[in-house]
Amino acid sequence: MTTPSLRPALLTAAGLCLAALTACTPSSHADAGAGRTASTTASPSSGTTTTDGATGTPSPTGSATPGSPSPASSSSTPGRSTPATSATPGPAKATPAPRPFWPRATFGGLTFQIPPSWAVNRESDQYACVEPVRHVGLPRMFGCTGLAIRADGFIAGYELSTYKPGQPGGWYAATDVQPCPVSPRLADGSFNGISSAHAAPVASGLRPVGSHKAWYDRWSASCWNGYRFSPQAWYLPVSKVLILDYTGHAETARILESVRFPG
After folding, report:
1. DSSP letter for each residue of 55-123
2. Any signal peptide, and if so, which residues (predicted)?
3. How far is CA 109 from each of CA 113, 150, 179, 241, rounded to the nearest angstrom?
4. Residue 102 · residue 114 · CB < 8 Å
5. What domains, with CATH codes, occur in the chain?
6. How far, CA to CA in Å, does 74 sit from each of 26, 51, 64, 90, 182?
7. pLDDT tens per residue across span 194-227
8. Phi-psi category of 37—alpha, beta or left, where left has phi over 0 and alpha has psi -120 to 50?
9. I need a labelling partner for 188 at 20 to 30 A (CA). Which of 32, 94, 125, 145 fits?
């Protein structure tokens, strides 16, 4: 039987033990939970980085959701601009087709290219017609269906006068009425002549012939039936050469461009 005087002391001791046991148990559970949390989630302020499985680029753990790819900005360095993506190149420019081969011909001390279907028909040392080999039915002036070249010595101008740049009718080296380049006969069979041979040039100036500059003139002419054409002339006073295109040919530009001079 317990002595009454000891009961209060026993009750006090039991209370102290119970309080100690209660206090120890919650404390140990709280530390374990904190340890597990720290092992899976880093503190935002710790600065710890991990490898982003999507890109292999380090990124802050707290800035990305697990299982989601990191934002594009995570791979760029702060304070530096990301290089711009180069534009897709456009289609390559087509290479111009090479010009067809033209053989070279010589007259009046000049050499020049002519189409393979053309020839140089020399009438004298001073005059030649560079024209298509097959020229039947083509516009014809002074018997020439292509380019007329006058060279060396006296060069005739209007009505066989001396040729001068800017001369009215300088292309018309004849003293009679010449037939129209096209349809030399009218519908009734009568003669169809040229009506305006002495007109002043409608265009003048310097134009290139090969590596030289030539005096250029263009006139307006017409026939009795109303047909109109534009004779042109390139005069080289030093080389003493006059080149005439009476009716206009697509080949003229390349022939003039290809001219080479002696020396």
Report:
1. T--EEEGGGS-TTSPPPGGGGSPTTSPPPPPPPPP-PPPPPPPPPPP--EEEETTEEEE--TTEEEEES
2. 1-30
3. 14, 11, 31, 9
4. yes
5. 108-176+191-257 (3.40.1000)
6. 42, 11, 9, 32, 82
7. 998 999 999 999 999 999 999 999 999 999 999 9
8. alpha
9. 145
172, burial (CB in 10 Å: exposed 0-12, middle 13-18, buried 19+): buried
**Given the structure tokens 């380049």, which residue do they identify?**
181
CA distance 260 to 263: 9
Q: Give the span between the Cα atoms of 188 and 193, in whole angstroms.
A: 14
Token couple for 178? 């010449």
**Which of left, alpha, beta for 26 (phi over 0: left; psi -120 to 50: alpha)?**
alpha
Q: Locate tokens 């119970």: which residue?
A: 18
- CB-count exposure of residue 173 (10 Å: 0-12, 13-18, 19+): buried
Residue 48 per-residue DSSP state? -
Q: Tell me the β-bridge partners of 121.
A: 129
Specify whether the CB–CB gap between 104 and 112 falls below 8 A. Answer: yes
User: Model's pTM, two decimal places?
Assistant: 0.65
Picking from 115, 145, 110, the residue whose alpha carbon sits closest to that of residue 254 is 115
The span from the CA of 34 to the CA of 12, in Å, is 35
Percent of the chain predicted with pLDDT > 70: 65
Phi, psi for residue 47 in degrees, rounded to 5: 80, 10
Is residue 146 within 8 Å of 118, Cβ to Cβ? Answer: yes
